[in-house]
Structure prediction request, 305 residues.
Amino acid sequence: MRAAGIDRFGGDVRPLDFDAPASPGPDEVVVAVRAAGVGNWDDIARTGGWDLGSQPPMALGVEAAGFVAEVGGTVRDFAVGDRVAVHSAPLRAQGAWAERFLAGAAEVAALPDEVDFATAAAFAVPSLTADQALRDAVELEDGQTLLVHGAGGVTGRLLVALGAHYGALVIATGSPSGAEALTAAGAAQVLSYSDSSWPETARELGIDCAVNAVPGQAALALTTVRDGGHLATITSDPPAPARGIRPTEVYVAPDGPRLAALLRLLAAGTLPLDVGARFSLPDAAEALAQVRRGTHGSAVVLTFG
Ligand SMILES: NC(=O)c1ccc[n+]([C@@H]2O[C@H](COP(=O)([O-])OP(=O)(O)OC[C@H]3O[C@@H](n4cnc5c(N)ncnc54)[C@H](OP(=O)(O)O)[C@@H]3O)[C@@H](O)[C@H]2O)c1
Prediction:
């Protein structure tokens, strides 16, 4: 099958050819991929910083959408031909930048008809990350004031929208040019991160919990949280506990039923996901380069056939 990935950790992304996955195990599903997401976490996997349990040569990619092509013997929730989205890691075979993606049935979600494959593919990782940060890590409660630091990105915007959906008053940091999109996503106030006084302004607003999405800035985000509040970071930079705040590191975990619920919110228009660029499989290197350069909240996908 056609794929894109790496020959060695740290190497350039290039087209590769692999055998299609063998028949699925009893609780597994093979997805015929129609679109796969490209995020900056794929660059971390490319350089070996995220162990996907696989060694090069390997296809990259941990999120996809498409049709169910094969199901294992004990799978009851999916049938061949179903439209689905999936985040799966560690990898069971090759990554999602390939014509077929093998995943556990428990990692797969039914895809509502209203959501196209490209949107669903780019939604899986950032939406699960945002939901796990808000509900599992900071245990956000209705009526709390939530800071999202680094709200201008794909994951950041979903943190804002989900926070508002769960009843928080959301304060977001972003660039002035992205403020309109953040307000549309549900931010009550957008603080410009280029204004160095933003942490002080945030502190004055009384932040109950914060989620950091800016690499290296969890410690700065912590300074805005009230004593005894909650901080989660999704960028592997947890500061030491302080003032009764115990920072939590969040790493996205596959969860099919949760992804299905999030996709229903996307289909209903409650959550935003804007696909800004589509590339074909042979251009995966350029897709990843675009993500590295920054996309200001627009997602990048590979589309197939
Ligand atoms: N732990 C996990 O499982 C997990 C999962 C998903 C993502 N992540 C990580 O979380 C981070 C954010 O993800 P993403 O998908 O939102 O990335 P993204 O789409 O690349 O967005 C990054 C955004 O950060 C904003 N930004 C840059 N410098 C900033 C600063 N100094 N202060 C505030 N905002 C700043 C920019 O906003 P403007 O465009 O407004 O300038 C940019 O759009 C990435 O590092 C990613 O690797 C981790």
Observations:
- The first helix runs from residue 40 to 46.
- The pocket of NAP is lined by residues 39-41, 125-126, 129, 149-150, 152-156, 173-175, 178, 193, 213-215, 234-235, 250-252, 294-297 (CB under 6 Å).
